[in-house]
């Protein structure tokens, strides 16, 4: 009887090993799982990638690479809904791109995203009929779909500025949520994209190995912009504080540190390791305090504040 059980187990293993798995290909998107209704719409520089996966209510990340130099041109994270549906909308400059769409357990590759201001562009298939060597048009010629909740906000122009740089995006429902807080991973990602930083090391923290922003955090660490908690932890999903933000933006700008004291009523609450960076950021007018003459160094920064600080930094180093 025991021998029959062993034989049955062997036959079952062989059946599993040699059973063929269907590879599904839709619009250049491939993976070892069922992919449903994947669509890629390209209108001039606006790209809309939507579809339906087996994974429901699950985190999903998209990273778009420019084929000419493999530079990351867009990154966003969302969730599939209860039906497994997802939708990413973003703008790209003229060129040819590829995209990787990842869930917790699987990764899909979308090739041949051709963006051209002179036409609708294409995805997948042959590229022979798509000339993408056109001149990049002025900003007012680029059709950008801005989030619906930033009109009239004090940071509206700064938000639009970073969106134009493809350094930040809103949420799938076309909102930006400017008053929401921002994480350390999100801020590091925006900095790397806004300042066009290149990889200088392969620094990976223990808590970023499987994180969606792993590559951006690695680039920021390699450029000396970020430090972790000790040697092995970064805390990517921790909300960033205003003093942490000041340190990271000053390091990104690569400007000389200022030791001048800041005249905030809570200046003594600034952590010792951040004091020179906060002073430098304030004296350079990269970051400001509040009307009650406080700086609130340990307060969590909002998305609007983060965007404004980064845009201020870019303006200063460009002058």
Indicate the low-confidence ranges by residue numbers.
Answer: 12-34, 121-142
pLDDT averaged over residues: 78
Please summarize the sheet with the most strands: 5 strands, antiparallel
Q: How many structural domains in the coordinates?
A: 2
**CA gyration radius, whole angstroms:** 23 Å
Helices, by number, come to 7
| Separation, N- and C-terminal Cα atoms | 84 Å
Lateral arrangement of strands in the main beta sheet? 6-5-8-9-10
Task: Summarize the amount of helix as a percent range.
Answer: 25-40%
N to C succession of SSEs: HEEEEEEEEEEHHHHHH
Range of strand content: 15-25%
Shape estimate: globular
How many E strands? 10
> Which structural class fits the helix and strand makeup?
alpha+beta
Summarize the structure in words.
This protein is an alpha+beta fold and 319 residues long. It has two domains: 20-135, Macroglobulin (MG2) domain (Immunoglobulin-like, Sandwich), CATH 2.60.40.1930; 146-319, no CATH class. The protein has seven helices and ten strands. The strands form three sheets. The protein has a five-stranded antiparallel beta sheet, with no helix packed on it. Strands 3-4-7 form a three-stranded antiparallel beta sheet, with no helix packed on it. Strand 9 and strand 10 form a beta hairpin.
